[in-house]
Amino acid sequence: MRGLPRRDHGLDQGPLLVGDITRVRLAIAHPVTQANPERLTGNNASPSPHRVIISRTEDHVPHSQARTWADQAVTGNPYAWAAYGALADALTQLGDDQGAEAAVQRMLDLHPSTASFTRAAYILELQGRTEEAAQALRRGLEDASNPADEAFCQHYLGELAFNTGATTPALQRYRKALALDPSFTAALAGAARAEAALGQSDRAVTDYRTAISRVPQPQYVLELGELLESLGRPTEARAQYLVLEAEQKLFAINGVVDDLNLGQYQADHGNPRLAVTLLTAEWGRRRSVLVADALSWALHRAGQDAQALPLAREANRLGWRDATVRYHRGVIEQSLGDDQPARTDLAGALAANPVFSPLHAPDARARLARLEGQQ
Questions:
Q1: d(CA 22, CA 45)
Q2: Which residues touch 252 (CB under 8 Å, ≥6 apart)?
Q3: Which has the least CB within 10 A, 126, 269, 296, 363?
Q4: CA-to-CA distance for 136 and 10, rounded, in angstroms?
Q5: Where does 168-253 sit in CATH, by number?
Q6: Distance set, CA 190 to CA 148, 154, 162, 209 (Å)
Q7: 225, 164, 148: which is closest to 192 by C-alpha?
Q8: CATH of domain 21-35+64-143
Q9: Under a CB-based contact definition with an 8 Å cutoff, are residues 50 and 58 in contact?
Q10: Helix segments in 53-146, DSSP class H
Q11: What residues contact residue 86 under an 8 Å CB cut-off, 6+ apart?
């Protein structure tokens, strides 16, 4: 991206924080003109946006369909700024990195606002440009027009802080988000993650349980299960894993494809071969760095390290500084006997975030100690 625009854009018409497909449909039905953007963002727009960045809608629209609708919207009206956000979300998930960046840049050019700054932050984070991502989020926070959108920016600043090992500042950001919007479940789960990393285990378990009681996202259930497992509470951990399996069955009954989350769970806590099957199918649908990482790890867990390594490298094609991604690659390299790259990646994972996972961070330290002892 060329950089963040100046603050001379006037009033924000209301941020769109995810690929809100209902707004894209509205753009097709009621074309937006440069002089009349309220068709998409004002009183005639859909209800307030969801607060999960780069995601599917509540209707679980496939990313390919989201891209089609967004393409139709921007073709019909090149000034439909919110449609570029939906297009960027879909292209990011489909692995079209250049297309996603171009869509976000166009959105910034048309309508610099919380909606465009948050998307720019995500693109920058995936490229390993974390300070620039934080700068974009701070701009989004300045432009936020209501407490819920301020809360979203505070939460995502917390995510950036946690992912770089700044656990206490992350917890402060999550709590600021909750003060602005007590119903913001993602911020509560983020606080639980930070509390666990800081050794506040009882509070973390309580906050995870509260978050799950509100919104039983598979990610929250899995994180609680792994925290309980790390605390030596296997029966409680297994109960969470059973909840996650039940959720996945309900998704399947309702026609929802969630192979990424299910594959990640199966790789570590279930059937790695099933994980490979699920994630291979997901990789066929979308070539994102998230899927590349998940599939590489599933292949490793299934004993197919030679096939896993190219995908582990693919997961870092943008320069993403994610500790889990580097840990996965380091373990795969170690399994293949590539000790020097393994040392580099395991050390890099712990340098990026020494508390990235209650289960895997201790394993990374143990593996690195063994490798260094062999020198």
A1: 9
A2: none
A3: 363
A4: 18
A5: 1.25.40.10
A6: 16, 11, 9, 12
A7: 225
A8: 1.25.40.10
A9: yes
A10: 63-76, 81-94, 97-110, 114-126, 130-143
A11: 16, 19, 20, 21, 23, 24, 66, 69, 70, 73
- 345 close to 327: Cβ distance less than 8 angstroms: yes
Contacts of 353 (CB under 8 A, 6+ apart): 162, 163, 164, 165, 323, 361
**Residue 44: predicted pLDDT:** 34
Q: Quote the DSSP letter at residue 47.
A: S
Q: Contact at 8 Å (CB) between 288 and 92?
A: yes
Rounded Cα distance, 157 and 135, in Å: 10
Q: How far apart are CA 207 and CA 319, in angstroms?
A: 33
**Ranges for all domains in the chain classified under CATH 1.25.40.10:** 21-35+64-143, 168-253
Residue 375 pLDDT: 66
How far is it, in rounded angstroms, from Cα 75 to Cα 83? Answer: 10
Gap between the Cα atoms of 167 and 237, Å rounded: 24
How far apart are alpha carbons 47 and 316 in whole angstroms? 36
Cα atoms in the 13 Å half-sphere on the side-chain side of 293: 22
Q: Which residues of the chain have pLDDT under 70?
A: 1-61, 375
Q: Give the model's pLDDT for residue 142.
A: 94
Residues 87-122: b if buried by 16+ CB within 10 A, e if exposed = bbbbbbbbbbbebbbbbbbbbbebbbbbbbbbbbbb
The answer to whether the pTM exceeds 0.85 is: no
DSSP character string of 199-225: T-HHHHHHHHHHHHHH---HHHHHHHH
Determine the residue type at 72: Q
Burial of 11 (0-12, 13-18, 19+ CB in 10 A): exposed
* Predicted local distance difference test score (pLDDT) of residue 51: 32
Q: How many CB atoms lie within 10 A of CB 171?
A: 22
**321-325 long-range contacts, CB within 8 A, separation 24+:** 321/128, 321/130, 321/163, 321/164, 321/352, 322/163, 322/293, 322/352, 323/163, 323/165, 323/349, 323/350, 323/352, 323/353, 323/356, 323/357, 323/361, 324/293, 324/349, 324/356, 324/357, 324/360, 325/289, 325/293
pLDDT of res. 233? 98
Instruction: Quote the longest CA-to-CA distance of the chain.
Output: 67
Residues 6 or more apart from 68 whose CB is under 8 A from it? none
Radius of gyration of the chain (CA): 21
